[in-house]
Amino acid sequence: MTGTGGRPRRPAHPVHDDVPPAVRSAYPLVVAGFCSLLLVSNVAAVKLVGIGPLTFDGGAVLFPLTYILGDVLSEVWGFRAARRAIVLGFVLSVLASGVWAVVQVAPSATGWDGQGAYEAILGFVPRIVAASLAGYLLGQLVNAWVLVRLKAAMRGRALWARLIVSTVFGELVDTAVFCAVAFYGVIEGLQFAGYVAVGYVYKCVVEVFLLPATYAAVRVTRRHEAN
Asked: How far apart are CA 95 and CA 117, in angstroms?
């Protein structure tokens, strides 16, 4: 292809013969990490952990990191891109739950005696699945929506404040919905209130503690996308 005067026309974008166009953006990698953390957290959430008077589910170990990646998605690519990743995570969670359910009811091989252990960890428990999916979907959407709205209202300033406020709202919705659907009636009274409060405060504190990492992730991702 030639331009004016017969000289070769420069391509609009740099050509990388060994890298497909879609891979040049960091977006697929962030989405992959986001969805992976979600799936691992859903499995870990089956176990209730007790440390002294505190009770929380195992998903709390990794799940706050999904909010950090959700913040990166919203801050760098906007609400639509974040929503696409959130919906993809939701679909993958539904798929995983469906696969676990099918495997649960499939006939066990002769000599395999792990059915009880499988059902205890990966067994399809409609209440837990519904709680996880509802809490995740609503919480992540609220987090992304608040972050993007604040970015527009504050003209891109005070990222730290936007990250904290979006986390406060997103984690509140997520924790309240999950705990109420999954364990209300199973854990009762003050123990249930403590379980909700501990889970909520823990997730918020973790994200605040990891603010420097979130800042760095946003900065690196923006720089990569600009190149």
From this structure: 21
d(CA 119, CA 117): 5
Domain boundaries defined on the chain: 24-101+125-226
Rounded alpha-carbon distances, angstroms, from residue 100 to 16, 106, 117, 176, 218: 41, 10, 13, 26, 35
222, 76 Cβ separation under 8 angstroms:
yes
Tell me the C-alpha distance between 34 and 84, whole Å. Answer: 12
Contact present, 179 and 163 (Cβ < 8 Å): no
The C-alpha atoms of residue 82 and residue 79 are separated, in whole angstroms, by: 5
pLDDT in tens, the chain (227 residues): 555 555 555 545 444 445 455 557 889 999 999 999 888 887 887 787 877 776 677 777 787 788 889 899 999 999 999 999 999 999 998 898 888 889 989 999 999 899 988 888 777 667 777 888 898 899 989 999 999 999 999 988 888 899 899 989 998 998 889 888 877 777 777 878 887 888 788 778 888 888 888 888 898 998 888 87
Cβ–Cβ under 8 Å, residues 72 and 30 = yes
> pTM of the entire structure?
0.77
CATH architecture designation of domain 24-101+125-226: Orthogonal Bundle (1.10)
For residue 164, the tally of other CB atoms under 10 A from its CB is 14
3-state secondary structure of 98: helix
